[in-house]
Amino acid sequence: MPELPEVEALTGFLRERAVGRTVARVDVLAISALKTYDPPVTALGGLTVTGVARRGKFLDLDVDGIHLVIHLARAGWLRWRDEVPARPARPGGKNPLALRLHLDDGSGFDLTEAGTKKGLAVYVVRDPADVPGVAALGPDPLDETFTPEALREIVAGKRTQIKGLLRDQKVIAGIGNAYSDEVLHVARMSPFKIASTLDDTDIATLHDAIVTTLRGAVERSRGLEAQDLKGEKKTGLRVHGRTGEKCPVCGDIVREVSFADSSLQYCPTCQTGGKPLADRRMSRLLK
């Protein structure tokens, strides 16, 4: 799933290539991905892309005051084309095409989504705040207002596991399953630690881990072509998706906890005092 660093990189990529270009037309192939009808997607035709912004994990293209807002969800992706194929776009294939945007110079991009569980969402709105997910976003962790004091207010009184809190877009915008694992590994903190139990030292450590991990990933992704971002994300991860491999910090084996539709990875030595966490569907903790 694209998270803050990848969406930030896509934002910069589109600023360089799309801003100043006029939208020739938009082809919608997966009508289920289009979540709005007023203004119609056809209203974008003939308008100029004047800006691109990231809002949490949302991409926001400002097209002469009408906003094309995109959430790539779990398996969506943006594929840039310097020359859009002359043949009409067709649905189906390994990575089914959901939407194709044509620009006036012949370039443009496709939105695709793999798998059977569809979550890709496209909105055409007059104000980004008209998108419910955008309106509900918590603070951006790369914003200067996201300070240790702000994080202290966020965790205060929250009887929630810190892993879940970091992934909650209404609490902190942009962090998903992968980077929450990475942040907690850097902070040497158990994913099951209760947020309200964090003391001032924990909060300072966690804040530093959030900011340095995300900024580092953003820097590694900066300037890459859109098609290279997934590979960069995977190679830059230390524990997420690396079950059974050695922790790059201590050499212990990276472990996994599986849930119904996701999993987390962690290092017992670095994060849980050497105790492996059990699958939550079976027990709370192996002692």
Automatic annotation (TrEMBL):
* Source taxon at top rank: Bacteria
Q: What is this protein called?
A: Formamidopyrimidine-DNA glycosylase
What InterPro entries does its record include?
Answer: FPG_cat, FPG_N, H2TH_FPG, Ribosomal_uS13-like_H2TH, Znf_DNA_glyclase/AP_lyase, Znf_FPG/IleRS
**Catalysis: reaction(s):** Hydrolysis of DNA containing ring-opened 7-methylguanine residues, releasing 2,6-diamino-4-hydroxy-5-(N-methyl)formamidopyrimidine
**Any idea which GO molecular function terms this record carries?**
class I DNA-(apurinic or apyrimidinic site) endonuclease activity; oxidized purine nucleobase lesion DNA N-glycosylase activity
Gene3D superfamilies, sorted: 1.10.8.50, MutM-like, N-terminal
Q: Which residues form a coiled coil?
A: none
Provide the alphabetized UniProt keywords: DNA damage, DNA repair, DNA-binding, Glycosidase, Hydrolase, Lyase, Metal-binding, Multifunctional enzyme, Zinc, Zinc-finger
Upper classification of the organism? Bacteria, Bacillati, Actinomycetota, Actinomycetes, Streptosporangiales
Pfam families under this entry?
Fapy_DNA_glyco, H2TH, zf-FPG_IleRS
Which cofactor is essential here? Zn(2+)
FPG-type domain: residues covered: 238-272
